[in-house]
Design brief:
85 residues, two-stranded antiparallel ribbon, 6 helices, 49% helix
């Protein structure tokens, strides 16, 4: 395999980054994935049929994005109703 082709594969994670806002707009509340720190090691792990565990162990880290919950203000009427129940 040519060196240019390997570099294109190694930059795969950069070209297809996670954009959580796009998922959050569609109702998804959490997006998780793996950030590749060392692309050359990632290519070695993948070529040796290594799985996600090996990626995290040698060349990546887990990332997670969670949508913040919208805090709704409770009116004084709702508060009073809750006390009566």
């Amino acid at each position: 395999m040519k060196k240019e082709s390997l570099w294109q594969c190694a930059n795969f994670s950069v070209k297809f980054a996670l954009y959580p806002a796009l998922f959050f707009e569609r109702g998804i509340t959490a997006v998780m994935g793996t950030r590749i720190i060392d692309p050359w090691t990632m290519l070695t792990v993948v070529s040796e049929t290594g799985g996600t565990k090996k990626l995290h162990q040698y060349c990546g880290e887990k990332v997670a994005f969670r949508k913040k919950a919208n805090k709704r203000k409770i009116s004084s009427l709702e508060r009073e109703k809750g006390k009566k129940d």
